[in-house]
Design goal:
Elements lengths: L8 H8 L5 E4 L2 H14 L4 E4 L12 E6 L14 H15 E11 L5 H7 L3 E11 L2 E9 L1
Parallel strand pairs: 1-2, 3-4
Antiparallel strand pairs: 4-6, 5-6
Length: 145
């Protein structure tokens, strides 16, 4: 599951690996682009227009979440403060992720995913920091539910 799927790159890769892939995005134009790219690559992931803070899924529904939420630099947050967006998203991720499932999230070092994960009873397993350019370093953090 990628709840911030944008044009669907992570979802398409997951589907190409043979996984049951699912993605959602708040922007219908992004979901439509993900549909078109999925068709091009010959895969059929489940794609939804949905808010990552309130997903239309039952509790414990997904085995894993891999996502690259907005950083507040060039991707819109639709008026939500970045730290609050991550807080709300991770609360929802906890709800839809099965016990023992994993959340892999890309984020800037400004977002303290360690504290958020701890708040929701999840455990940070690993973080990798990657310098992108002068204005952006991003972390890739693996969290176990």
């Amino acid at each position: 599951m990628d709840p911030f799927c944008g044009t669907g790159s992570l979802v398409i890769e997951a589907a190409l690996l043979g996984l049951q892939a699912m993605g959602s995005d708040l922007n219908p134009a992004m979901v439509e682009a993900a549909r078109m790219l999925s068709e091009y690559y010959g895969v059929e992931p489940l794609l939804l227009v949905a808010d990552a803070r309130s997903l239309p899924l039952p509790d414990d529904h997904v085995d894993g979440i891999g996502t690259d939420p907005p950083y507040g630099i060039s991707s819109p947050t639709y008026g939500e403060q970045l730290d609050q967006l991550y807080e709300s998203f991770m609360s929802e991720a906890k709800r839809v992720l099965r016990p023992g499932g994993y959340l892999v999230v890309c984020h800037t070092p400004d977002i303290n995913v360690f504290d958020i994960a701890k708040k929701y009873g999840m455990c940070v397993e690993f973080t990798y920091s990657m310098y992108v350019h002068s204005r952006l370093t991003r972390n890739i953090t693996v969290i176990k539910n």
